[in-house]
Amino acid sequence: MPQSDEVGRVAAVLARLAEADPEPKAGFDDTDPFRLLVTVLLSAQSTGPTVARIADALFARVKDPAGMLDLGAVQITEIIRPVGLGPSKARNIVKLSAALIETYGGAVPRSAAEMRKLPGIGRKSAEVTANFAFHEPVIAVDTHVFRVSNRIPLAPGATVDAVADKLAEAVPERFKDGAHIWLFRHGRDTCTARKPACTRCPVSDLCTWPGKET
After folding, report:
1. Which of 124, 176, 189, 212 is catalytic?
2. Which portions of the chain are predicted below pLDDT 70?
3. Structure pTM?
C-alpha cells in the first residue's frame, strides 16, 4: 500500500490538474459504447484525428455488432486502411462483434474485466472504454500516463500493468473518473517526452524528477 504522504502528493497533483480541466471529456464519441470500443481498438499506433475520421466513415455504414458482421472483414479493412494494421484490426472487430452477440446479447459489457475477454481488447482498451462510457473508476495507462506516472513520480513501475496497479491504489476515489484524461493531457501537452515544459507546469513544485527545469 502507498504511504500516506505519497497518497497526499498524488491527490495534490490530481487536484491541480482537475482545477485546470474540471470537466474532462473523451477525445472520441463516448455516447455509444460499441462505437467507442471499436474506436479505441482502431487507435492503436494511429493518431487521434485520423482515427476519429475513420470511425466516422465506418459507423456511417454500420450501427451495431450485427451490422459489423454483415459488412465483413474485407470491407472493414478497406474503410479502416488509413489507421494502419487494417487487416488485423478488421479481423478483431469482426471477432469482438461476434463475441458481443454470442455472449452479451449484442451489448458491450459494463466492466473492464469483462471487456478484456473480448478478442483484440487488452487492458488499456478495456479500461479506456469502461471509464469513458460507463464511468468505471479505472485508470487506463498509455504512453503519456506511463511517462508522467514514472517521472513526477506518482506510481512508478517498470511495466504498464505495474503502473496501472499502483495508480489504482494511490489515486483517491474522487479523482479516478477523470485521472486518465488529466494525466494523458498533462503528458501530451506539458510533460512531454523530449522537452517537458517544466516552467509552465502546474505541478512543478510537486515533481521530484531530477531532470526538472527550474
Report:
1. 124
2. 1-5, 26-27
3. 0.89
